[in-house]
Amino acid sequence: MSGSSLDGLDIAFCEFVYNGNWEYQIIASDTIPYTEEWHIALTEMPKQSGQKLVEYDIRYGKYLGEQVNTFMDRYKIKPDIICSHGHTVFHNPKLHYTFQLGHGQAIAIATGIKVISDFRIGDIQLGGQGAPLVPIGDKLLFQDYDYCINIGGIANISFDVGNKRMAMDICPANQILNHLSMQLGKPYDENGNIAQLGKMNSALFNKLNNHPYYLLPYPKSMSNQLVVDTFIPIVDNIDISIEDKLYTVCKHMAYQTQKIIDKIPGQNILVTGGGAHNSFLITAIRKETQKKVTIPENDIVDFKEALIFAFLGVLRMENSINCLASATGAMRDSSSGVIYNP
Q1: Does 4 reside within a domain?
Q2: Distance separating alpha carbons of residues 284 and 279, to the nearest angstrom
Q3: Per-residue pLDDT for 263 more than 90?
Q4: DSSP letters of 10-32?
Q5: CATH number of the domain enclosing 231
Q6: DSSP letter at 231?
Q7: What is the model's pLDDT at position 42?
Q8: Per-residue pLDDT at 110
Protein backbone atom coordinates (compact mmCIF):
# COMPACT_ATOMS: atom_id res chain seq x y z
CA MET A 1 0.00 0.00 0.00
CA SER A 2 1.05 3.56 -0.70
CA GLY A 3 -1.40 6.25 0.33
CA SER A 4 -1.93 9.89 -0.51
CA SER A 5 -0.21 11.01 2.70
CA LEU A 6 3.08 9.72 1.18
CA ASP A 7 4.47 8.66 4.56
CA GLY A 8 5.88 5.46 3.12
CA LEU A 9 5.24 2.01 1.72
CA ASP A 10 3.16 -0.33 3.91
CA ILE A 11 3.87 -4.05 3.62
CA ALA A 12 1.95 -6.68 5.57
CA PHE A 13 2.23 -10.49 5.50
CA CYS A 14 -1.27 -11.79 6.19
CA GLU A 15 -2.96 -15.16 6.54
CA PHE A 16 -6.66 -15.79 5.87
CA VAL A 17 -8.73 -18.80 6.89
CA TYR A 18 -12.38 -19.48 6.02
CA ASN A 19 -14.41 -21.50 8.56
CA GLY A 20 -17.91 -20.30 7.78
CA ASN A 21 -16.60 -16.80 8.50
CA TRP A 22 -13.33 -15.25 7.38
CA GLU A 23 -10.56 -15.01 9.97
CA TYR A 24 -7.31 -13.12 9.52
CA GLN A 25 -3.91 -12.62 11.08
CA ILE A 26 -1.20 -10.04 10.38
CA ILE A 27 1.99 -12.04 10.89
CA ALA A 28 4.56 -9.39 9.96
CA SER A 29 4.36 -5.75 8.91
CA ASP A 30 6.61 -2.80 8.12
CA THR A 31 6.37 0.76 6.86
CA ILE A 32 9.33 1.69 4.64
CA PRO A 33 9.71 5.49 4.56
CA TYR A 34 10.20 6.93 1.10
CA THR A 35 13.56 8.40 0.23
CA GLU A 36 13.51 12.07 -0.66
CA GLU A 37 13.94 11.05 -4.31
CA TRP A 38 10.83 8.84 -4.29
CA HIS A 39 8.83 11.37 -2.28
CA ILE A 40 9.55 14.07 -4.86
CA ALA A 41 8.96 11.69 -7.80
CA LEU A 42 5.56 10.53 -6.52
CA THR A 43 4.50 14.07 -5.63
CA GLU A 44 5.42 15.38 -9.09
CA MET A 45 4.12 12.35 -11.06
CA PRO A 46 0.71 13.88 -12.01
CA LYS A 47 2.55 16.71 -13.82
CA GLN A 48 4.92 14.47 -15.79
CA SER A 49 4.81 13.55 -19.50
CA GLY A 50 3.22 10.33 -20.70
CA GLN A 51 6.65 8.90 -21.44
CA LYS A 52 7.88 9.64 -17.91
CA LEU A 53 4.71 8.09 -16.48
CA VAL A 54 5.31 4.84 -18.38
CA GLU A 55 8.96 4.83 -17.32
CA TYR A 56 8.10 5.29 -13.64
CA ASP A 57 5.27 2.75 -13.77
CA ILE A 58 7.95 0.12 -14.44
CA ARG A 59 10.60 1.70 -12.23
CA TYR A 60 8.24 1.94 -9.26
CA GLY A 61 7.04 -1.64 -9.91
CA LYS A 62 10.64 -2.84 -9.69
CA TYR A 63 11.11 -0.79 -6.52
CA LEU A 64 8.03 -2.45 -4.98
CA GLY A 65 9.41 -5.86 -5.94
CA GLU A 66 12.78 -5.08 -4.36
CA GLN A 67 11.14 -3.90 -1.14
CA VAL A 68 9.00 -7.07 -0.98
CA ASN A 69 12.13 -9.21 -1.52
CA THR A 70 13.88 -7.43 1.38
CA PHE A 71 10.77 -7.88 3.54
CA MET A 72 10.57 -11.61 2.71
CA ASP A 73 14.26 -12.09 3.53
CA ARG A 74 13.90 -10.20 6.81
CA TYR A 75 11.00 -12.33 8.04
CA LYS A 76 11.96 -15.59 6.26
CA ILE A 77 8.58 -15.84 4.55
CA LYS A 78 7.22 -16.82 1.12
CA PRO A 79 3.67 -15.65 0.35
CA ASP A 80 1.32 -17.43 -2.05
CA ILE A 81 0.43 -14.15 -3.77
CA ILE A 82 1.37 -10.48 -3.66
CA CYS A 83 -1.50 -7.98 -3.72
CA SER A 84 -0.47 -4.48 -4.70
CA HIS A 85 -2.53 -1.34 -4.48
CA GLY A 86 0.25 0.73 -6.06
CA HIS A 87 0.35 4.51 -5.74
CA THR A 88 -2.59 6.49 -7.16
CA VAL A 89 -1.49 9.13 -9.65
CA PHE A 90 -4.81 9.80 -11.40
CA HIS A 91 -8.36 8.99 -10.36
CA ASN A 92 -11.21 10.36 -12.48
CA PRO A 93 -14.27 8.10 -12.46
CA LYS A 94 -16.31 10.71 -14.38
CA LEU A 95 -14.04 10.18 -17.38
CA HIS A 96 -13.78 6.43 -16.65
CA TYR A 97 -10.08 6.22 -15.78
CA THR A 98 -7.82 5.67 -12.82
CA PHE A 99 -4.10 4.97 -12.64
CA GLN A 100 -2.10 3.34 -9.88
CA LEU A 101 1.67 3.49 -10.43
CA GLY A 102 3.68 0.27 -10.03
CA HIS A 103 3.25 -2.25 -12.84
CA GLY A 104 2.15 -5.68 -11.59
CA GLN A 105 4.28 -7.52 -14.14
CA ALA A 106 7.41 -5.73 -12.93
CA ILE A 107 6.62 -6.80 -9.34
CA ALA A 108 5.95 -10.41 -10.41
CA ILE A 109 9.23 -10.69 -12.33
CA ALA A 110 11.23 -9.05 -9.52
CA THR A 111 9.82 -11.41 -6.87
CA GLY A 112 9.00 -14.60 -8.78
CA ILE A 113 5.52 -14.57 -7.20
CA LYS A 114 2.04 -14.18 -8.71
CA VAL A 115 0.79 -10.59 -8.35
CA ILE A 116 -2.72 -9.14 -8.29
CA SER A 117 -2.94 -5.38 -8.88
CA ASP A 118 -5.06 -2.77 -10.71
CA PHE A 119 -7.97 -3.40 -8.37
CA ARG A 120 -9.90 -0.24 -9.29
CA ILE A 121 -10.13 -0.17 -13.08
CA GLY A 122 -12.66 -3.00 -13.48
CA ASP A 123 -15.20 -1.28 -11.25
CA ILE A 124 -14.74 2.02 -13.08
CA GLN A 125 -15.46 0.32 -16.40
CA LEU A 126 -18.66 -0.97 -14.80
CA GLY A 127 -19.69 2.63 -14.11
CA GLY A 128 -18.44 2.73 -10.51
CA GLN A 129 -16.14 5.10 -8.67
CA GLY A 130 -13.40 2.46 -8.34
CA ALA A 131 -13.43 3.42 -4.67
CA PRO A 132 -13.75 2.78 -1.86
CA LEU A 133 -12.70 -0.87 -2.09
CA VAL A 134 -12.23 -1.62 1.62
CA PRO A 135 -15.97 -2.08 2.40
CA ILE A 136 -15.91 -5.80 1.49
CA GLY A 137 -13.15 -6.26 4.07
CA ASP A 138 -15.03 -4.14 6.61
CA LYS A 139 -18.14 -6.28 6.08
CA LEU A 140 -16.44 -9.69 6.22
CA LEU A 141 -13.54 -9.08 8.64
CA PHE A 142 -14.82 -6.33 10.99
CA GLN A 143 -18.51 -7.10 11.36
CA ASP A 144 -18.60 -6.24 15.09
CA TYR A 145 -18.62 -2.50 14.29
CA ASP A 146 -21.49 -0.37 12.99
CA TYR A 147 -19.14 2.02 11.18
CA CYS A 148 -15.57 1.53 9.95
CA ILE A 149 -13.57 4.72 9.40
CA ASN A 150 -10.07 4.86 7.97
CA ILE A 151 -8.24 8.17 8.32
CA GLY A 152 -5.41 8.27 5.81
CA GLY A 153 -4.63 11.03 3.34
CA ILE A 154 -8.39 11.04 2.77
CA ALA A 155 -10.87 9.78 5.40
CA ASN A 156 -13.42 7.17 4.34
CA ILE A 157 -16.29 5.32 6.00
CA SER A 158 -18.38 2.20 5.41
CA PHE A 159 -21.55 0.94 7.10
CA ASP A 160 -24.54 -1.32 6.46
CA VAL A 161 -27.89 0.01 5.31
CA GLY A 162 -30.21 -2.97 5.36
CA ASN A 163 -28.34 -5.77 3.63
CA LYS A 164 -26.16 -3.44 1.58
CA ARG A 165 -22.71 -2.14 2.47
CA MET A 166 -22.50 1.56 1.73
CA ALA A 167 -19.32 3.61 1.70
CA MET A 168 -17.84 6.94 0.74
CA ASP A 169 -14.89 9.24 1.20
CA ILE A 170 -15.74 11.60 4.04
CA CYS A 171 -13.27 14.47 3.62
CA PRO A 172 -9.58 15.29 3.18
CA ALA A 173 -7.57 14.22 6.22
CA ASN A 174 -3.82 13.69 6.68
CA GLN A 175 -3.18 15.12 3.23
CA ILE A 176 -4.14 18.58 4.57
CA LEU A 177 -2.90 18.07 8.14
CA ASN A 178 0.56 16.98 6.94
CA HIS A 179 0.65 19.83 4.40
CA LEU A 180 0.16 22.29 7.26
CA SER A 181 2.56 20.55 9.66
CA MET A 182 5.34 20.64 7.07
CA GLN A 183 5.09 24.43 7.05
CA LEU A 184 6.35 24.22 10.64
CA GLY A 185 9.14 21.81 9.66
CA LYS A 186 7.36 18.68 10.96
CA PRO A 187 6.23 15.77 8.74
CA TYR A 188 3.00 15.42 10.74
CA ASP A 189 1.27 16.78 13.84
CA GLU A 190 2.13 14.13 16.46
CA ASN A 191 -0.91 13.39 18.67
CA GLY A 192 -2.45 16.64 17.40
CA ASN A 193 -0.18 18.55 19.79
CA ILE A 194 0.07 21.54 17.45
CA ALA A 195 -3.65 21.56 16.61
CA GLN A 196 -4.63 21.73 20.28
CA LEU A 197 -2.68 24.97 20.62
CA GLY A 198 -4.99 26.62 18.07
CA LYS A 199 -8.54 27.88 18.12
CA MET A 200 -11.54 27.66 15.83
CA ASN A 201 -11.65 29.98 12.84
CA SER A 202 -15.26 30.26 11.64
CA ALA A 203 -14.37 31.67 8.22
CA LEU A 204 -12.11 28.69 7.38
CA PHE A 205 -14.57 26.21 8.93
CA ASN A 206 -17.42 27.53 6.79
CA LYS A 207 -15.36 27.67 3.58
CA LEU A 208 -14.32 24.03 4.00
CA ASN A 209 -17.89 22.92 4.75
CA ASN A 210 -19.20 24.78 1.69
CA HIS A 211 -17.07 22.73 -0.71
CA PRO A 212 -19.28 21.30 -3.52
CA TYR A 213 -18.10 17.74 -2.77
CA TYR A 214 -20.29 17.66 0.33
CA LEU A 215 -23.44 18.25 -1.73
CA LEU A 216 -22.87 15.13 -3.88
CA PRO A 217 -24.96 12.04 -3.12
CA TYR A 218 -23.13 8.87 -2.15
CA PRO A 219 -21.52 6.60 -3.20
CA LYS A 220 -18.80 9.12 -3.94
CA SER A 221 -15.02 9.28 -3.83
CA MET A 222 -12.44 12.03 -3.59
CA SER A 223 -9.22 12.13 -5.61
CA ASN A 224 -5.85 13.32 -4.33
CA GLN A 225 -5.94 15.90 -7.08
CA LEU A 226 -9.25 17.31 -5.88
CA VAL A 227 -7.69 17.85 -2.46
CA VAL A 228 -4.57 19.49 -3.95
CA ASP A 229 -6.48 21.66 -6.42
CA THR A 230 -9.43 22.79 -4.29
CA PHE A 231 -9.13 22.06 -0.57
CA ILE A 232 -5.49 22.98 0.04
CA PRO A 233 -5.92 26.45 -1.57
CA ILE A 234 -8.77 27.10 0.90
CA VAL A 235 -6.45 26.55 3.89
CA ASP A 236 -3.48 28.27 2.22
CA ASN A 237 -5.38 31.42 1.23
CA ILE A 238 -6.49 32.46 4.69
CA ASP A 239 -4.24 34.58 6.90
CA ILE A 240 -4.33 32.81 10.27
CA SER A 241 -1.77 30.78 12.26
CA ILE A 242 -0.92 27.19 11.34
CA GLU A 243 -2.14 26.16 14.79
CA ASP A 244 -5.56 27.68 14.10
CA LYS A 245 -5.66 26.03 10.68
CA LEU A 246 -4.88 22.59 12.15
CA TYR A 247 -7.44 23.04 14.92
CA THR A 248 -10.14 24.12 12.46
CA VAL A 249 -9.41 21.35 9.92
CA CYS A 250 -9.68 18.72 12.69
CA LYS A 251 -13.03 20.18 13.76
CA HIS A 252 -14.13 20.18 10.12
CA MET A 253 -13.24 16.49 9.81
CA ALA A 254 -15.20 15.64 12.98
CA TYR A 255 -18.19 17.67 11.76
CA GLN A 256 -18.29 15.99 8.35
CA THR A 257 -18.01 12.56 10.03
CA GLN A 258 -20.93 13.39 12.31
CA LYS A 259 -23.08 14.56 9.38
CA ILE A 260 -22.80 11.09 7.79
CA ILE A 261 -23.07 9.02 10.97
CA ASP A 262 -26.07 10.99 12.25
CA LYS A 263 -28.23 9.50 9.48
CA ILE A 264 -27.17 5.87 10.11
CA PRO A 265 -28.29 3.93 13.25
CA GLY A 266 -25.48 2.45 15.36
CA GLN A 267 -23.13 3.05 18.28
CA ASN A 268 -19.72 1.52 17.60
CA ILE A 269 -17.08 3.18 15.41
CA LEU A 270 -13.81 1.48 14.46
CA VAL A 271 -11.13 4.04 13.53
CA THR A 272 -7.90 3.04 11.79
CA GLY A 273 -5.24 4.69 9.64
CA GLY A 274 -2.59 7.25 10.54
CA GLY A 275 -5.21 9.69 11.81
CA ALA A 276 -6.12 7.25 14.60
CA HIS A 277 -2.83 8.24 16.30
CA ASN A 278 -3.96 11.89 16.39
CA SER A 279 -5.54 12.02 19.86
CA PHE A 280 -6.82 15.59 19.37
CA LEU A 281 -8.67 14.54 16.21
CA ILE A 282 -10.10 11.39 17.84
CA THR A 283 -11.33 13.43 20.81
CA ALA A 284 -13.00 15.84 18.37
CA ILE A 285 -14.75 12.93 16.61
CA ARG A 286 -15.89 11.45 19.94
CA LYS A 287 -17.33 14.80 21.06
CA GLU A 288 -19.03 15.53 17.74
CA THR A 289 -20.55 12.07 17.14
CA GLN A 290 -21.32 11.06 20.75
CA LYS A 291 -20.55 7.45 19.76
CA LYS A 292 -18.24 4.76 21.14
CA VAL A 293 -14.96 5.13 19.20
CA THR A 294 -12.59 2.14 19.24
CA ILE A 295 -8.92 2.40 18.30
CA PRO A 296 -7.64 -1.19 17.82
CA GLU A 297 -4.11 -2.52 18.25
CA ASN A 298 -1.41 -0.74 16.24
CA ASP A 299 -1.10 -3.51 13.63
CA ILE A 300 -4.74 -2.96 12.63
CA VAL A 301 -4.52 0.84 12.94
CA ASP A 302 -1.49 1.07 10.67
CA PHE A 303 -1.99 -1.87 8.30
CA LYS A 304 -5.75 -2.39 7.97
CA GLU A 305 -5.78 -1.15 4.36
CA ALA A 306 -2.83 -3.38 3.46
CA LEU A 307 -4.64 -6.28 5.19
CA ILE A 308 -7.80 -5.63 3.20
CA PHE A 309 -5.98 -5.33 -0.13
CA ALA A 310 -4.37 -8.69 0.65
CA PHE A 311 -7.91 -9.96 1.27
CA LEU A 312 -9.11 -8.48 -2.04
CA GLY A 313 -6.39 -10.51 -3.75
CA VAL A 314 -7.48 -13.70 -1.97
CA LEU A 315 -11.08 -13.13 -3.07
CA ARG A 316 -9.88 -12.42 -6.62
CA MET A 317 -7.98 -15.72 -6.74
CA GLU A 318 -11.17 -17.45 -5.56
CA ASN A 319 -13.10 -15.54 -8.25
CA SER A 320 -15.32 -14.24 -5.43
CA ILE A 321 -16.87 -10.77 -5.24
CA ASN A 322 -14.39 -8.26 -3.86
CA CYS A 323 -15.90 -5.02 -5.13
CA LEU A 324 -19.36 -3.95 -3.96
CA ALA A 325 -21.58 -1.98 -6.31
CA SER A 326 -23.47 -0.59 -3.31
CA ALA A 327 -20.23 1.10 -2.19
CA THR A 328 -18.91 2.26 -5.56
CA GLY A 329 -22.04 2.88 -7.63
CA ALA A 330 -21.13 0.32 -10.32
CA MET A 331 -23.82 -1.49 -12.32
CA ARG A 332 -22.99 -4.76 -10.51
CA ASP A 333 -20.68 -6.37 -7.96
CA SER A 334 -17.45 -7.72 -9.41
CA SER A 335 -14.27 -9.65 -8.76
CA SER A 336 -11.68 -7.02 -9.61
CA GLY A 337 -7.91 -7.10 -10.03
CA VAL A 338 -5.47 -8.03 -12.81
CA ILE A 339 -3.39 -11.19 -12.29
CA TYR A 340 0.27 -11.22 -13.37
CA ASN A 341 2.30 -14.43 -13.43
CA PRO A 342 6.10 -14.28 -12.96
Answers
A1: no
A2: 9
A3: no
A4: EEEEEEEEESSSEEEEEEEEEEE
A5: 3.30.420.40
A6: I
A7: 96
A8: 98
Contact present, 303 and 10 (Cβ < 8 Å): yes
Average pLDDT along the chain:
95
Domain-located, residue 60: yes
CA 221 vs CA 46, 128, 157, 202: distances in Å: 18, 10, 11, 26
- Asked if residue 272 lies in contact with residue 304, where contact means CB atoms within 8 angstroms, the answer is yes
Mean pLDDT to the nearest integer, 332-337? 98
Full domain range(s) for residue 42: 9-128+304-340
Alpha-helical (H) ranges within the chain are: 36-44, 50-75, 104-111, 121-125, 135-141, 174-182, 202-209, 224-226, 232-236, 242-261, 279-289, 298-317, 325-328
Give residue 172's pLDDT: 96
Please indicate, yes or no, if residue 79 is contained in any of the structural domains: yes
The model's pTM: 0.88
Query: What is the mean pLDDT of the segment spanning 87-112?
Result: 95
